[in-house]
Amino acid sequence: MATIADQIDAPESYSTETPAEAAPKAPRAVLNVGGAAVGRRKQAIARVRLVPGSGTLSVNKREFAEYFPNKLHQQLITDPFKVLDLVGAYDVVAKVTGGGPSGQAGALRLAIARALNEIDRENNRAILKKAGFLTRDARVIERKKAGLKKARKASQFSKR
């Protein structure tokens, strides 16, 4: 019969580290099918066409990095490709109108995610849905109310 000391010194112990023998993931197969979708965020509207290619992104006939110089916006837009392991698999041609840079980036991300979902629903939908890329952000600017200066800002109240 094993004693407590033998169990403590046992070679099979528990740790928080992941096992080293985890198999590397195989690269995703790219379908030779294109897709198109529309994404909206605040006042911005993005129309996107995905074509199998080398991974170039063009927005309003300009280079991606030139149109979105902010690295945070660039990362936000390319997130759907990273989640699906499809970086460099599709060329993106986008037309974006309205809103500001942040709204346009959000609209473009939604449009890309919807187009990827349209291309391969069985494999892509669950991953994109879990990451929250297929949900439209419905937050918009609140309307101005009568008698107030802005949506909620009122003139200072004086008791006397």
TrEMBL record:
Keyword Ribosomal protein listed: yes
Transmembrane segments: none
GO cellular component, as recorded: cytoplasm; small ribosomal subunit
Gene Ontology terms, MF aspect: RNA binding; structural constituent of ribosome
GO biological process, one term: translation
Region (Disordered): 1-26
Assigned keywords, A-Z: Ribonucleoprotein, Ribosomal protein
InterPro entries to which the protein is assigned, alphabetical: Ribosomal_Su5_D2-typ_SF, Ribosomal_uS9, Ribosomal_uS9_bac/plastid, Ribosomal_uS9_CS, Ribsml_uS5_D2-typ_fold_subgr
Gene3D superfamilies the UniProt entry points to: 3.30.230.10
PANTHER family membership: RIBOSOMAL PROTEIN S9, SMALL RIBOSOMAL SUBUNIT PROTEIN US9M
Family: Belongs to the universal ribosomal protein uS9 family.
NCBIfam families: PRK00132.1 (NF001099)
Protein's name according to its UniProt entry: Small ribosomal subunit protein uS9
